[in-house]
Specification:
about 200 residues; mainly alpha; single chain
Length: about 200
């Protein structure tokens, strides 16, 4: 839904007068989550890059006729690329649909990475080494948590703004319908020039 600036300004004005406040993308909570997300993301990228480079070095030192299972390498490489795509997508996180894709994409990718690294470091998820928790589980859990919170903030702000926008638009539409037909301007023109 594309919001008309005139109506949107009235919505913001009404929210301020009524004392309606909720988490928004320009708020403190979103900014804290964003910085935690970026730090955890950067740490995860360093760890993933070290793993990818390590596998490539091992592969290069093996004789050319030997085979090596590359499933883990391919999986980690693809999931790392998806996480980078989600970081790029976070730049356009103003749209509620993109916010949902961003949060869901990060959650799914991070959980998959946790599973992949967990399987690499142990046959079961019991008694995994401490490095799994510090290098993989903790930063990926922070990525999941922060990206989901950021998405919820954007989606919630959109839904609340949309509801208030529709209420104001309904009032304007009633006034527009009350005008006599011979003096009725174009709807877009009426909305753009409406004085509150």
């Amino acid at each position: 839904m594309v919001f008309n600036e005139n109506i949107l300004n009235r919505v913001k004005e009404r929210e301020q007068k009524s004392g309606v406040y909720y988490a928004k993308k320009d708020g403190k909570g979103y900014k804290i989550c964003k910085w935690l997300y970026i730090l955890a993301f950067a740490f995860t990228m360093v760890i993933n890059a070290l793993y990818i480079i390590g596998i490539l070095l091992i592969k290069s030192e093996l004789p050319s006729n030997s085979t090596m299972n590359m499933n883990g390498f391919i999986t980690v490489s693809i999931l790392t690329a998806v996480m980078i795509l989600m970081l790029i997508l976070s730049k356009f996180n103003d749209n509620h649909i993109i916010a949902g894709v961003f949060g869901g994409g990060n959650a799914i990718t991070s959980v998959c990475l946790i599973i992949v690294f967990g399987q690499m470091l142990g046959n079961t998820y019991v008694n995994l080494p401490a490095k799994f928790y510090l290098l993989h589980l903790l930063p990926l859990a922070i990525v999941v948590l922060c990206s989901l919170i950021m998405s919820v903030i954007v989606i919630n702000a959109h839904l609340k703004t949309k509801k208030a926008y529709e209420q104001v638009l309904e009032i304007v539409f009633r006034e527009y319908n009350a005008l006599p037909d011979e003096n009725k301007p174009d709807w877009e023109e009426f909305v753009n020039n409406y004085k509150f």
